[in-house]
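Holo model, magnesium ion. Inputs:
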Amino acid sequence: RLPQEVTIWEVGPRDGLQNEPTRLSTEEKIAWIDSLTDTGLTHIEVTSFVSPRWIPQLADAAEVFAGIKKKPGVVYSALVPNQQGLERALEVGMEAVAVFMSASESHNKKNINKTIAQTLPVLHSVTQMAKAQRAYVRGYVSTVFGCPYEGEVDVDQVLQIALSLLEDGVDEISLGDTIGVATPLQTERVLERLLKEIPQDRLALHMHDTRGTALANILVGLTMGITKIDSALGGLGGCPYAPGASGNVATDDLLYLLEGCKVNTGIDQAALLSSLVLLQNSVGHPLHSHASKIFQAQ
Ligand code: HMG
Ligand code: MG
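Output:
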């Protein structure tokens, strides 16, 4: 049984552009995000307030957020790795932020230059500060289904980190298959364990599609009651500090699946296609999604 409604959190402007070889101008980013707003999406992750040395593609975070139109009812979020990131985000008026860490030591160190034990108190204070400002806070847990450096990741480690972030006050946990290794039976096993301790409406799935299993894994999640799914238009995406990581599950492919299964998302397919065309023109190369190959062939 599938849910009647699913919330898609579009992460392309953040996860997609952080790993995109073509550097979009601030104006191009703003135009693309505005076109995403026009699709009916209710959640868009627009940028990251991380170190511009680590992710130069998103160094214009403040300008992008200042420039986009803010449609009432749409949640615009950004990644914040630490207090400095949160302060930059709050300064420009962001009302939703996402803290992030890994369930595996090596990826955590490569991505944010800290051990897991050093990261937890940082995210604790960032979350508390954000909640004090009434911001909505997501907590990403990366490498839930496998780590590029360590291979398998212990589901109990994932659970402990997720519970710790929830205790800090994060509103929801997004479970990252950072390098796209998950399979449906593994997804079921991991979710079964987590759902024993965490309500389903506080969990989201953030699947990269490196091996083509993302939609199958998402379908498993939907049948288990998960109704929040992250995706990136055209299948852009990937963590630059996770070797072998490729794009997120594509929003356009996910929408095709959900529409076909009569699951409501509130997103207009024609408007999403316009946004896809605009994105492809900006990046200047064909996109990875299945749906985009159809319009490229026309
Ligand atoms: P660090 O070098 O250890 O930081 O980086 P530091 O605290 O020692 O500071 C060093 C310098 O960075 C200082 O500047 C700080 O001011 C500056 P300096 O004095 O040398 O001129 N700095 C900052 N500047 C702007 N904004 C900030 C900030 N913080 C410090 N917020 C740090 C530590 C966490 C900053 C760095 O490692 C970093 O930015 N990492 C981010 C990496 C990243 O964005 N990765 C991709 C996103 S995660 C992902 O894709 C996974 C996800 O999609 C889920 C999934 O798929 O699994 C979410
Ligand atoms: Mg990601």
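The mean pLDDT is 97. The pocket of magnesium ion (ligand 2) is lined by residues 15, 176, 178, 206, 208, 237, 239, 248 (CB under 6 Å).
Archived with the compound record.
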